[in-house]
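User: Before I run my own analysis I want an independent prediction to cross-check against. Here's the chain; please return only the structure tokens and, at the end, one sentence I can use as a sanity check.
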Amino acid sequence: MNQKNALGLNSCFLDINDPIQLFKIWMEEAKASELNDPNALALATADKNAIPSVRMILLKDFNREGFVFYTNLESQKGDELKANPNASMCFHWKSLLRQVRINGNLSKVADDVADEYYNSRTYNSRIGAWASKQSKILKNRNDLISSIEEYKKKYNDKDRVPRPKHWSGWNLSPLSIEFWLGRENRIHERLKYDKNENGNWNKSLLNP
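Assistant: Structure tokens:
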């Protein structure tokens, strides 16, 4: 029988006031449990007309400042985030029957941070950042292959491929974080953290 915490929730929620610490613990458990990409998340954005869009991406870093991913700044999500920096993330770990939802606003990471991550990528991934006009119409797959080969010729030194100016990272600074545990009969357990005006976290239970 699972132990309960002070709020009557399953012990996996713990009794801590810092949602980033709880997220770190859940992520480590997901890494041990999920077969593929425990850092995968659904990122929801909206354009200037409030038309929503969602896609799966990979989380590359997180800390008390926020949750970081990388992309082409001229892609659909890049254009949407420049027009409307509000976004939402959702992690779903089916093996654990858990979800985490994060709402907040985004800003670009510093150039040196983007450079460091870009240089850690494989050569082919760095070339791909140059060759792909992400989200733009592609007339023929061969056009992309040709572009890749052209950039390989241009940057044939695998240790010296500069980061494109149109490729960088975004950091989602969280305003709310909700932890969800699936339960029988859909009587799920939900714990939400909201950041107050002083930058501290308030937590509350939500009905399923």
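Sanity check: Residues 119 and 162 are 8 Å apart (CA to CA).
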